[in-house]
């Protein structure tokens, strides 16, 4: 059985490191675990693992990682090697005991990792000083990719991802896709974009409940920040959502109640319908052109 527990961590580039660290620690309530090689490692604090790394630069994804088992690292390494994909073993990040790094066809860097702390989350055994709105964990990543079909095929063929849902254009190319490696509806989302510089549509944090999201949004607003979209419930995955742009230049989603999916479930395929609001099942929440087309 797969050892994957959704996304393990992501390192994002931010335009102003100090401003971003202050936001993610003070407003979001993440715990600073370590600083090394210009990267600030932050965790949600319910285990010793880091969830979000920040490095000063532009915006978007420096790399992201899925947790797997040691056996899976061996297996995927040999499959990627056989397929002619360059890989590298990396284990220099805090808490990361082993890692296999490679590039997706869109050039985004991905890792499969094992971590030292595999304990389960216990609310009364926090690491560091969490606050009342701190997310439970990282949930999923949605990449902005200039070739969603190439990334989708790579994730399916080499890494055993399954496509839970996708939206296709008139000629059948993928506009958006949601892929799972474990039992949740999506661990990785793909949003087709024309801009090869943009690598991230959003990074999502897992919240306990709608009430937890409400408290977070109250805190966000009290600190002078506004939501971009939501809250509402998504079509794909059925998860609750609220989106905002974080200081440093990346879009963040708060989410809860992500559906679990039968491993044998077939892909749900929908054609794009620009007249219909496909983002929110409830209606009343209309995504802007910027939300649909812009990333970081
Ligand atoms: Fe990593
Ligand atoms: Fe999402």
From TrEMBL:
Gene Ontology terms, MF aspect: dioxygenase activity
Keyword Lipoprotein included in the entry's annotation: no
Pfam short name (any one): Glyoxalase
Alphabetized SUPFAM superfamilies for the sequence: Glyoxalase/Bleomycin resistance protein/Dihydroxybiphenyl dioxygenase (SSF54593)
Residue stretches making up the VOC domain: 6-115, 137-257
Coiled-coil positions: 66-93
Keywords, comma-separated and alphabetical: Coiled coil, Dioxygenase, Oxidoreductase
InterPro entries: Fosfomycin_Res_Enzymes, Glyas_Bleomycin-R_OHBP_Dase, Glyas_Fos-R_dOase_dom, VOC_core
Cross-referenced PANTHER family: GLYOXALASE_BLEOMYCIN RESISTANCE PROTEIN_DIOXYGENASE, LYASE, PUTATIVE-RELATED-RELATED
Name of protein: Catechol 1,2-dioxygenase
């Amino acid at each position: 059985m797969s050892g994957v527990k959704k996304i393990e961590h992501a390192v994002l580039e931010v335009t102003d490191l100090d401003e971003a660290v202050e936001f993610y620690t003070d407003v979001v309530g993440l715990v600073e675990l370590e600083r090394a090689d210009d990267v600030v490692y932050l965790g949600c604090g319910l285990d010793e693992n880091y969830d979000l790394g920040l490095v000063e630069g532009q915006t978007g994804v420096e790399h992201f990682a899925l947790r797997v088992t040691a056996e899976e690292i061996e297996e995927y390494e040999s499959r990627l090697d056989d397929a002619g994909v360059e890989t590298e073993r990396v284990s220099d990040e805090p808490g990361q005991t082993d890692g296999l790094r490679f590039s997706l066809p869109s050039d985004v860097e991905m890792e499969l990792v094992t971590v030292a702390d595999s304990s389960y989350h216990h609310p009364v055994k926090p690491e560091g000083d969490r606050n009342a709105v701190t997310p439970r964990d990282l949930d999923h990543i949605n990449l902005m990719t200039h070739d969603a079909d190439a990334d989708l095929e790579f994730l399916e063929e080499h890494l055993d991802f399954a496509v839970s849902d996708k939206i296709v254009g008139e000629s059948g190319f993928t506009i958006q896709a949601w892929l799972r490696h474990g039992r949740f509806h999506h661990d990785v989302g793909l949003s087709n974009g024309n801009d090869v510089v943009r690598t991230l549509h959003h990074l999502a944090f897992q919240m306990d409940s709608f009430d937890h999201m409400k408290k977070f949004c109250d805190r966000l607003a009290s600190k002078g920040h506004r939501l971009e979209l939501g809250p509402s419930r998504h079509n794909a995955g059925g998860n609750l959502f609220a989106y905002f742009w974080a200081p440093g230049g990346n879009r963040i989603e708060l989410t809860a109640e992500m559906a679990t999916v039968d491993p044998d479930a077939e892909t749900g395929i929908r054609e794009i319908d620009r007249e219909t609001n496909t983002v929110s099942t409830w209606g009343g929440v209309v995504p802007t052109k910027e939300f649909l087309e812009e990333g970081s």
